[in-house]
Amino acid sequence: MTALAGMSAAARRRLPRISLSDRDAMMDELLPTGDRFRSYLWRFTTLLVLSAAIAAFGLLSDSVAVVIGAMLVAPLMTPILATAAAICTSDSRRLVRATVVLIGGTLLAIAVGIIVSKLSGRTIVSADDLPTEVLSRTEPGLLDLGIAVAAGAAGGYVAPRRDATSALPGVGIAVALVPPLAVVGITLEAGATSDARGALLLYLTNLAAIIFAGAVMLLASGVAPPEIDAQRRVRVGLMVTVGAVVAVAIPLTLHTLEVIEDTQFERAVTAAIREWDDTVDVVELSTDVDDGRGNVELRIASANESRPAWELAELIAVRHDGPVDLLLASQSIDEIQVSAR
């Protein structure tokens, strides 16, 4: 926490401090208390159901514009920032309430995704049948963590400043919250549990990173209790958020390394094919690396008889610096020239 404390102190010296009235207004706006909480909860539930439905329909129809619209409607950013603010102010009651709202909203959005997927009538037999917009949210990486940290910092900066709240919808668009939950519901309904886990990991990544970065930015802006005991609780809360970010960063790092390895292997295969026979046309190419062993499924088209497949396998193995399994299918190209008058 020493480095984090140093960065926070440096930021406090540069960022304009917010007033106590702005802090209280922010807390009440993010998560009201008393009689206003009931109306807030009704509004939150209504918007969440609608945004999750819009997101699910947009994902199933493979429409980027509709998914962006769902991000604008989604209300999840406010309880997330309320959680960060409650950590900074050591407000245990508000922290519990925000956590309950987040858990309930998460489960509700997933349920809406399942219902919309059932009602859509779209037949999804395997993961290959999933739309591109759905698949793009099932394999998160370190870039997603970076986006979430930046978005959380932006949210923490905007939330207590009345003159900058117009930027909050942009923060909601920058980081995906409801669409990954709709993807969890869609993939669960389709029986694609591994894809559902990936989408849930994306959501948890965004959740942990936004709370952490938002809390750091709020502390740097002066949202902190003056009491020593409360400051200790704030440090404990920050340590918990750091642990959550580290916990999601580990699988993200492993997946990113796998993607890098697969990409490098595909480039090696493409270069080996050109070296093997630069006259062939690649019709279909599928590559992956499993425990260091490269797997290649290749379909080519050629007007001439191609060189032996074992030569290609050896070229790939040399470039990959490891064992390779190659499945090669070849088809001829018939050249026909006709004219009509």
Task: Characterize this entry briefly.
By secondary structure, the chain is mainly alpha-helical. Helix content is 68%, strand content 9%.
**How many individual β-strands?**
3
Written as H for each helix and E for each strand, in order along the chain, the element string is HHHHHHHHHHHHEEHE
Q: What profile does the largest beta sheet have?
A: 3 strands, mixed
Distance between the termini: 82 Å
The best one-word shape is: elongated
Q: What is the structural class?
A: mainly alpha
Helix content: 55-70%
Average pLDDT works out at 84
Neighbour order of strands in the largest sheet: 1-2-3
Strand percent estimate: 5-15%
Helix count?
13
Could you list the spans in which at least 5 consecutive residues all have pLDDT below 50? Answer: none
Walkthrough of the structure:
With 341 residues, this protein is mostly helical. It has helices spanning 2-14, 20-30, 36-60, 64-73, 77-89, 92-120, 132-135, 142-158, 168-174, 178-190, 193-220, 228-276, 309-320; strands spanning 281-290, 293-302, 324-332. It has a 3-stranded mixed β-sheet, covered by helices on one side. α13 links the parallel β2 and β3 (324-332). α6 packs across α10 (178-190), α8 packs antiparallel against α9 (168-174) and α8 (142-158) packs parallel to α11. It is elongated, with a radius of gyration of 26 Å.
